[in-house]
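Researcher: I'm preparing a figure for a lab meeting and need a structural model of a single chain. I don't have an experimental structure, so a prediction will have to do for now. The sequence is pasted below. Please return the structure as tokens so I can convert it later.
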Amino acid sequence: MKMLLALAWRNLWRKKRRTFITLSSVMFAVVLAIGLMSMVNGMKQQMIRSVISNTTGHLQIQDVLYHDEPTIDHAMYYGEEVKNAIEKYEDHIAYTVPRIEGFCLASKEISSRGVYLMGVEPEKEDRMNDLSSRLRAGRMFSAGDEFAVIAQGVANQLDLAPGDTIVLLGQGFQGMTAAGKFMVGGILEFPLPEMNNTLVYLPLTTAQYFFAAPDRLNSLILMLYDQSKADELAMKIQEELDDEWYILKTWEELMPDKLAAFEARDAQVRVFAWVLYIVAGFGIFGTIITMMHERLREFGILLSIGMKRSQLAGVCLVETVFISIIGVIAGVVAGFPIVYYFYRNPIPLADELADTMIDFGLEPYMSFSIDTGIFVYQALTIFFIALVVGLYPVRKVFRLDMISAARK
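Model: Understood. Here is the structure written out token by token.
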């Protein structure tokens, strides 16, 4: 065995050009596979992050009727029962984000438009979706403040600036009239038009007073340390709550349309990935065939001077293993810097692609992922394909006519 390994290694570097061509085919296959799956996983993670950070969080506690009829009348009571249930599993919960929200009519003088009012705790909301980075004028409210912070589109449409007054009119809890005047303290800019043209923020307690719903929330968002434990944790917390009043939902349950879109996209990508694997396999196979035809005379001479076919086939198989290992490692080494660069610098999209991303509720950027599993899975897949293709020389050796091959 030691002799076969040494002979296979020497054969690789006896014809360096031939070896580098074969190595390059494996390496480029790995780089392409890593690049494709990194982009796909990055886009998927971007979608999930956008859904989780901008809307649902990992888990939500709601009134049992709220999901089917999301109105302020079905805002849940945020009392000791809920607080105790959360406290019991605080080791798994990074933080909570309470919200009370509803549609209102916003106006200034004779101008008016529909807005979506959200009552939030600024520190927790900022931790979830980085509101402070979107501030373009004025300042964000803090505990004890009673002014509003509005989106840039709302400010433009109503001609509002920090220091102006916005009038809000809507429906409060159980038919109460919700009306109030608030100073505009800051202006936020969002990349998504749907958010930028509708959002108005108030401090949580101020919004609860506005909606006549003290100690009530539309939802309590739970952000977890480990997203993979969301389903398990949801079942455990639900056991601590009264099923007649409270229900706990995961982001997948809250966004079934987005989940269906993710699954459909994954199916398309898997088909495309296998097309890439097949193309890569044929590319490697082509270089192997070329290599074999160049070495037929060499093989014929080796067999004619007494080398066993099993030994020669073993040498060919070991050469394939060496080439596959080196090519895969080179592909990972070459692919990682490329993927890492685009991970740190997402590709901005324009025109129709940007519009499509915005329609999905995503920022118009093409993101990449550097998840370790991408590199491992793609490397192993291409390695396996190279090994399968490498069986061709073994089969060729056992069926080779040594006389005619030696005369070539």
